[in-house]
């Protein structure tokens, strides 16, 4: 079982560069989300999707774009990287229903120089 | 946004029992999750409470009081491998609300 797969695992960018963090799940989950985790801040929601073609903003969406063209994939795009976006990024997915736990990918550790 | 509060750090002895508390605004959430996160790894699901009371799952139990805006995670017979961060997360009230709001996590250190 692959579960939630994130690529790359590590990435170093220069300020102003753009890149896409990939997330794929093979569990046919309707709900997918992106979080960032910073020391002392906990997990903060960036964007989420309740199904293909539907996305919405979370708590900290500025500087990030998402799309959901298929049920399986939910890429996160950094438009113009800034040092403040240095973080660990987690993708998660779940069935859409009360009490359905979110399954997390292994994370992408991103450094912006 | 809605706040979820939990202690930053706790230390407990191997073999002991530890209770990790989580408080939140009562009007904000419908259902509380607990996740475990080892250093450098992804969070993994431990428990979910939507009704008041205690849910027991092996060495781990979780309690919810909706009227008090209070939850706790109880870990019994502590093992060294239980050293991790424990994350409390609330699911917002309202149909179709699946996004979670996480507390900042409690780092538990288990000592011999």
Describe this structure in words.
Chain A contains no helices and eleven strands. In chain A, strands 2, 4, 5, 6, 9, 10 and 11 form a seven-stranded mixed sheet that branches. In chain A, strands 1-3-8-7 form a four-stranded antiparallel sheet, with no helix packed on it. Chain B is mainly β and 112 residues long. Chain B has no helices and eleven strands. Chain B is globular. The model of chain B has no long low-confidence stretch (mean pLDDT 92). Chains A and B meet through strand 4, strand 5 and strand 10 of A and strand 5, strand 9 and strand 10 of B.
H and E order of chain A: EEEEEEEEEEE
The class by helix and strand makeup of chain B works out as mainly beta
Q: Helix proportion of residues of chain B, in percent?
A: under 10%
Rg of chain B, Å, rounded? 14 Å
Residue stretches of chain A low in confidence (pLDDT < 50, at least 5 long) are: none
Structural class of chain A: mainly beta
Number of helices of chain B: 0
State which percent range the strand residues of chain B make up: over 45%
What's the mean pLDDT score of chain A? 95
* Percent of sequence in beta strands of chain A: over 45%
Rg over CA atoms of chain A:
13 Å
Number of DSSP E strands of chain B: 11
What is the average per-residue confidence, as pLDDT of chain B, rounded to a whole number? 92
Written as H for each helix and E for each strand, in order along the chain, the element string of chain B is EEEEEEEEEEE
For the largest interface in this structure, which chains are involved and how many residues does each contribute?
A-B, 26 and 22 residues
Query: Tell me about the biggest sheet of chain B?
Result: 6 strands, mixed
Low-confidence stretches of chain B: none
Bulk shape of chain B: globular
């Amino acid at each position: 079982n692959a579960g939630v797969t994130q690529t790359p695992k590590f990435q170093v960018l220069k300020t102003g560069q753009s890149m896409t963090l990939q997330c794929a799940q093979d569990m046919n989950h309707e709900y997918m989300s992106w979080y960032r985790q910073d020391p002392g801040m906990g997990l903060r929601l960036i964007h989420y999707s309740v199904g293909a073609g539907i996305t919405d903003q979370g708590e900290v969406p500025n500087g990030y774009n998402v799309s959901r063209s298929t049920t399986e994939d939910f890429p996160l795009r950094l438009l113009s990287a800034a040092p403040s976006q240095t973080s660990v990024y987690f993708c998660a997915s779940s069935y859409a229903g009360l009490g359905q736990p979110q399954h997390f990918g292994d994370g992408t550790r991103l450094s912006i120089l | 946004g809605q706040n979820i509060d939990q202690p930053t750090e706790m230390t407990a002895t191997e073999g002991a029992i530890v209770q990790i508390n989580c408080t939140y605004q009562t009007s904000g959430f419908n259902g509380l999750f607990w996740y475990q996160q080892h250093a450098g790894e992804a969070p993994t699901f431990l428990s979910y409470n939507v009704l008041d009371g205690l849910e027991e799952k092996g060495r781990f139990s979780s309690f919810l009081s909706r009227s008090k805006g209070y939850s706790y995670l109880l870990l019994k017979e502590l093992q060294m491998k239980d050293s991790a961060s424990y994350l409390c997360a609330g699911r917002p009230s309202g149909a179709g609300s699946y996004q979670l709001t996480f507390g900042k996590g409690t780092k538990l250190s288990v000592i011999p």
